[in-house]
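During the reporting period the student researcher (J.K.) took over the structure-prediction task from the postdoctoral fellow and processed the backlog of single-chain submissions. One of the processed entries is reproduced below for the supervisory committee.
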Amino acid sequence: MQEIKTLKDLLHNAAERFGDKTFLKYIKGGVVKEKSFKRLEEDAAAISSMVTYMSPSGPCHVSLIGMTTYEYIAVYFGIVGAQCAAVNLDAKLSIEDLCSLITRSDSKIVFLDNNYIKYANAILNRCPMVHCIINMQSDESGDNTRSLRMMMKNVSRLGGAAQLINADLKREPSAEDCATIIYTSGTTGVSKGVMLSHANLVDNVFCSEDKLDENDVKLTVLPINHAIALTADILNGLRFGYTICINDSVMRLEKNLKLFEPTTMIVVPMIAESLSRRVKAKNKRIGDMKKAAREVFGKNFNFIFTGGAPLTQELIDTYTEMGYEIRQGYGMTECSPKISTGVPGDPYQDSCGRLSLGCEARIVDGELQVKSPSVMMGYYKDEENTALAFTEDGWLKTGDLGSIAEADGHKFIYITGRLKNLIITDSGENVSPEELEEKISAEDVISEVVVYEKDNKIVAEIIQNPDVTGTDVTSEAESIIQGAIDRINEGLPLYKRIQTVKMREEDFEKTTSGKIKRAALK
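J.K. obtained the following structure tokens:
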């Protein structure tokens, strides 16, 4: 096997080893389509040439907005293969937030899923650096967009990817080049662009002891803009040679489990819990828990990974009764993301798995800190927050409270709490309280606000502006403030929306420096 230093190397190695074997399966027009390892490399090479042709002045940043599709994956490898950085954006964000991130990331080209082509005009109007928007699914170009399919046909007509660009324009990525920028919610109120190099991502692919091989079939469920879906599903598939089946909607998850009959998948605990309820409902009729589980998960399923939020012992016990192993991992985008991984057969089900190969971990004042070749290059154009993310001696601060246990020749990670204010929803999404507070504070009816999580709900505790609504908390004042929250919620993805508004009459308890004591509110 050739030395793998970049994602382009990883794809080429997989194409050489697995060739015409099916890499991706997905539903299109009600029919299951397939694409091989070899075909993905060919399409990625053509897209690399196109991206290079469109950025003659040198490598640039290219934004991707869409769901998990074959086109998205091919475009991603085309971007990084052209020595450019792929900016994987959350398609659920509002157009305002997307335009802000496109601008902040200095993206010059934007690839859009057909479902989001409605954003094209706004992007062109609000993002002055963007000079080209490409529709990943359309057969025809629009007024302000170009068709990826038409561009691919033109590449083929010209004699292939190698003929599209001059030799002096050809670019090869290096291990040190930034491959991906992923914006993640933080505690500063402004999302930060995590820069991951080819070396970071390649290391994270090979740092875990996953017991997978080319005979496995993996259903990819999590959004592709999340680092865990990119690394643990897509890139890992190139390492092991397994087939990836794309789940096109959480609403059709059970249907797709039956259709694709996977052996494994990665989900957040909320989805694992939902599936377990389906099994329990069937079990009431069947009277055989394992048989009921097969009806839901399919005959080939044997292992489920979770991440993004902690597993409960009750859920672990339920899956054991169903006949499946369930293990959780732990990580963060800043570490590409895997820090530890649950491994089938390990007896420590309550842990977050084995510490990844090559990763060092320590506990300082209760906080888990790590060092690894997977650790990010830094935050894009944000030296201040990059410095704050590390200790003086170069360890990444996870912001999580935890412990490390040694057993059977391995180190196991346990997470006991969080140092950060960051809210992690039960679906595994990260929500920055400060980001929401900034939006809410902009309303003139509100004087002060603190956002926090309670009973799995996002709560906004609010002090009204007496100059606008008066000092008394009346039903009229509550109605006005609820109206303001409703307007804010309309511009937010579902997982970020305020679910409870709590009116407060007395001042918030504050520190001597004037900062609100958040802990006093929970």
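The committee noted the following: The longest strand covers residues 396-407.
J.K. will present the remaining backlog at the next meeting.
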